[in-house]
Structures are given as C-alpha cells and as structure tokens.
Design brief:
The chain has 318 residues and is an alpha/beta fold. Helix content is 38%, strand content 25%. The protein has an eight-stranded mixed sheet, covered by helices on one side. A six-stranded parallel sheet has the order 3-2-1-4-5-6, with helices on both faces.
C-alpha cells in the first residue's frame, strides 16, 4: 500500500486570510502547517499559538530552510505582494498567492515575469472558482450546447475602502483589487479566445458611477459586464444557454431555470462552503494535489494575469 508523503505547508502573512487558509489546509489528511512568517512577528506568534504551528520564522529564507515546505501560501496585502512573492520565488516550493497577484496590471506582469524567470510553479487563490456553486454551474455548462450569454454584475465602493484603511494606491486601482473576483467569471464560463472588449459606458475616474462593457469570444459566446461604483448593488452572475439559464446571486448560491419553465431551482451548497470560507477547502485540496504532481485545475499565475488583462481592457486603466 502506497503511503503519501506528508505535505508540508508554510504560510507567509498573519492576517485574516492566513487563518482561513490554515483552517482549510489543516482539515486535509496528510497535510502539516510547518511554519509561518510575517513582518509582524507578534501576530505570527498569535496565529501559531492558535493553530498549533511550531515554527515562527524571522524571514522567508528561514521559513524555507526550517520547514522544507512543499507549498508556500502567501497572504500579504496588495502593495507587498510583488516583493514578498519574488522572495518566495528564490526557493523551489510550489507557491499559492492570494489574489490579486499585483495591485494593477503592470505590477501583475512583473510578478508573472519574475516567476517565469525562476521557473517556479505558481498558482493564485481565485477562490470563487472553487465555490461549490461555481463548480456545479461549470460542470453543467459542459453538457449544454449553443452560444452563451454571460452577464456579470459588479459593485465597488472606493469611499468605504478608504474608510476601512485601504491605501490610496490600492483604492485608485480598486478594479484590480476587487473587481477581479467577478471579472474572472468571464474566463471561467466563456469559451474560446476573447476577440473584443467594447466599453459601452466607459470608466470615468473623476466621476466613478457606472461602467459597462461587451466582451466577445471567438466561440460565439458574449459577455456583458455591468458595475456600479460608490452605491449599493449586488455581485451576481447569470449565464444563459438555449436549454438552461443559471443564476448566482449571491455568488455562493446557484439556481437554474430550464427552457419553457418559470421556476428557479436552487442547488444546496457543499458542506465545505458552510464550514469554511467558501471555496477555500476545495482550493486547498487542489493545491496539495499540485505539490504532488497530480492533475488539478488550480488557476495559474498566467491565468490570473489574463483576468487582470481583462480588467485593464474593460476599464482602460494600466
């Protein structure tokens, strides 16, 4: 009987998301959180005590050498991701970066180039891809024919982001920091290559009220992106095919309407998405599979850059 080697996981960062990732990974048999590093050592020590992590390290170099980790999970703020990820790329562990991997498109390109130069395997924690709702919809779409109409509704609030203490540079690029969560659904659900991104209501930085854009795929699929800024609104995704229409509102819940019917039929979320922050438990399992060289569909750093590029093309902002 083959016995799997214990997967050693190291954590960089000690904020809220670090704790959520740790909870998810610790639920997987054969996984050990072997160390943590944060620029705020006292916070790292608190997280280590909370989750029973033995090694609290003073640097990324020390984290790698003391843990001999197979996987490093990087959970640092947007403006730190470039420097911290580059420090991690010096070592041959698999890396899972919290999103966004870069505070704007140019920053994301630098991170992707650095990973490529070091020949590292790097993935990005686009956890909404791993929602049980998203998984159900994508699985069903594979069985449905005909062109798709994908509508994504976004809501962003720069005023509240500033009030919450987000840095001005991040807030000025808030479409990258936050809209990427929903813009990525076009890449999940649209087939083929994007051939055109046409602004319908262009982004006006001085008056950021409404944004709308049409996205065309060479498969015949069409996307419509709508965003409201600094006012209430939902995050929602709908995708229509000749046979069935799926709706995710909120994104954690999926319901469908069949052709000729008016009733929406809801789908129960997976228990993991109730017990853990949605998407993180399945995402953690896929990250472990990646470290073991097993098949997985964890989004790569290149795929994350594709989503950042789509944000750039919608907002015409570098």
């Amino acid at each position: 009987m083959k016995v799997e080697k214990i997967c050693q996981v190291a954590i960089v960062g000690a904020g809220y998301m670090a704790g959520e990732h740790i909870r998810a990974f610790q639920d997987i048999p054969g996984v050990n959180i072997s160390g943590i590093h944060s620029r705020t050592r006292v916070r790292a020590e608190q997280i280590a005590a909370q989750f029973g992590i033995v090694k609290v390290c003073g640097s990324i170099e020390e984290l790698y050498h003391l843990t001999e980790a197979d996987l490093v999970v990087v959970t640092v703020p947007e403006l730190e991701m470039n420097g911290v990820s580059r420090a991690c790329f010096k070592y041959p562990w698999v890396a899972l970066l919290e999103k966004p991997a870069g505070y704007n498109y140019a920053d994301a390109r630098e991170i992707e180039s650095a990973a490529r130069a070091e020949h590292r395997r790097v993935f990005v924690a686009l956890n909404r891809r791993h929602y049980s709702s998203t998984q159900v919809v994508i699985k069903d779409l594979r069985e449905l024919s005909g062109p798709r109409f994908i509508r994504v509704e976004d809501q962003e609030d720069q005023i509240r982001a500033l009030e919450a203490g987000q840095p001005r540079l991040v807030v000025d690029n808030w479409m990258y920091a936050n809209s990427i969560h929903v813009v990525d659904y076009f890449l999940m659900m649209g087939r083929g290559k994007i051939t055109a991104v046409e602004p319908i209501v262009p982004w006006v930085p001085d008056v950021p009220h409404f944004v709308a854009a049409k996205i065309t795929f060479d498969s015949g699929d069409v996307g419509l992106y709508e965003a409201v800024w600094n006012r209430p609104g939902p995050w929602a995704v709908t995708v229509s095919t000749p046979e069935k229409r799926w709706e995710m509102r909120p994104l954690e819940q999926a319901a469908y309407q069949e052709a000729g019917q008016r009733k929406m039929v809801g789908v129960e979320p997976h228990p993991w998405d109730v017990k853990f922050k949605p998407g993180l438990r399945l995402q953690a399992e896929k990250a472990v599979a990646a470290t073991r060289g097993e098949a997985n569909d964890l989004p790569t750093l290149q795929e994350s850059l594709d989503a950042m590029r789509l944000v750039r093309d919608i907002y015409k902002r570098q």
